[in-house]
Task: inverse folding
């Protein structure tokens, strides 16, 4: 058995951070909790050990700095992100109709793209995140919405 490369480990830790950020933003949205207290909770109580399981609600190996940055950035730009997301969604799917986890995921993806994450990286990462939360058509919706946003910004990939 070969050890994962440092690049693979770093990518995994960043993907886990994005999954955790989606969960944290979902929690903020559903409970109206202060984002800073949710970040602290995630770091203190969910970042246990590398043997802890993500399926058990833990975030082993997460890039904690990235987790904090994503949550803070998304919350600080949420009004702009939500306006953008509303414009990107089909008229038949208003924001209120979105699954709350899907809404949090789209917010984080758009927020990261607004801060300069290359579109192809954002789309690939958030497709991975979408597949970890959903087994239906939601990943296709994530791909379509993020690609549409990227094209509007001048960097789409047509996946």
Result:
């Amino acid at each position: 058995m070969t050890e994962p490369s440092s690049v693979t480990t770093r990518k995994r830790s960043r993907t886990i951070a994005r999954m955790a950020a989606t969960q944290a933003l979902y929690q903020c949205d559903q409970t109206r909790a202060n984002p800073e207290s949710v970040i602290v909770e995630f770091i203190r109580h969910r970042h246990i050990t590398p043997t802890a399981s993500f399926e058990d609600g833990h975030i082993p190996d997460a890039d904690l700095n990235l987790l904090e940055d994503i949550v803070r950035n998304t919350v600080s730009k949420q009004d702009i992100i939500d306006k953008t997301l509303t414009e990107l969604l089909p008229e038949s799917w208003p924001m209120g109709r979105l699954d709350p986890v899907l809404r949090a995921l789209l917010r984080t993806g758009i927020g990261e793209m607004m801060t300069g994450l290359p579109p192809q990286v954002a789309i690939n990462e958030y497709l991975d995140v979408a597949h970890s939360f959903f087994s239906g058509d939601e990943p296709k919706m994530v791909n379509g919405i993020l690609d549409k946003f990227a094209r509007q910004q001048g960097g789409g990939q047509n996946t």
Notes: The longest helix spans residues 6-31.
